[in-house]
Predict the 3D structure of the following.
Amino acid sequence: MTAGATGGIRFAIRPSAEPVPGRRRAQLLAQPGFGQVFTDHMVTISWSAGRGWHDAQLGPYGLLHMDPASQVFHYGQEIFEGLKAYRQASGPVVTFRPGVNAARFNRSAARMAMPQLPEDTFLEAIELLVTQDRDWVPAAEEHSLYIRPFMIATHVGLGVSRPSPEYLFAVIASPAGAYFSGGPRPVSVWLADGYIRAAPGGTGAAKTGGNYAGGFVGQLQALDHGCDQVVWLDAAEHQWVEELGGMNLFFVFGSGDQARIMTPSLTGTLLAGVTRDSLLTLAPDLGIPAIEGAISVADWRQGCASGAITEVFACGTAAVITPVGEVKSVSGDWKIGGGQPGPITMRLREHLLGIQFGQLPDPHGWIHKIC
Ligand SMILES: *Cc1c(COP(=O)(O)O)cnc(C)c1O
């Protein structure tokens, strides 16, 4: 056993005695899917009110041994993050703006009354895991290693008078294929009806499982109407567009040299996506003005009818940039553009992927080399 040090915390390193054999790993990497296959190792760190962060270790991926009365199972106190490691063409394995994920993790923790994790410990945990499992980072085009840090309340007991005094932080990783084989396919979206995802003062801006748990009913509604994804509207007026279940939305106005993009402002009920933030910076680099604003369902529909809105896309770490081709709702259905991926959508997508995979320069210092 060796140990790595960071910000005062030392990680015990316990490599797996039974890593997946290379041939089997190669088979798994050929068809990884998304979130189905996991690497040989995981990181865990415990926290208690008395000891703070302790027992940091990189060990074999495996089951968590937990008491059924652990607080997370009953009251859902949990947060997570999602980022990727990319194998760049020139060799190194890198991550993209991991410090932004570390900061967002702590904002989620604050909202969910959970302890802060020092950002350098968050980053060190990711670096240790990716370095140990570097052979699991796919080399195929647009494939990556999806990294999932999370924190759960582990205190045993059913009392709810206060947040858990004990937590477990963990990081697992999963090789991920291209979300869409054969290039991105425009998705259809359903405007949520009768349900909301988040309300002012609620947990919508935190990356917490409960937002997903409460949103599945809307996603089922979307599937029932033959749509791929649900779009959430604001809680008060049910007319302002917020985001998808797990992705932010962008609207493209105009075309060619006149094109500009807009995304709903962070009102406190939306999740502040790293991809969203990156596109707000990258688009102007390409000469495409980018603003944050508000768009109603009526404006969306009229904009598509008049041709003012030429493209719409969703964005997030997992699926990068996904064109939206069609909208369905209780008040009517409409198509966007020709139902094909639009040129601005594809240009932004290629530019972002180009930076992440090292084929384009990284003018903003977003790439973080790991190994
Ligand atoms: C994670 C997430 C996003 C996308 O964030 P990225 O940092 O770009 O991956 C958008 N909306 C919700 C609800 C999310 O959970």
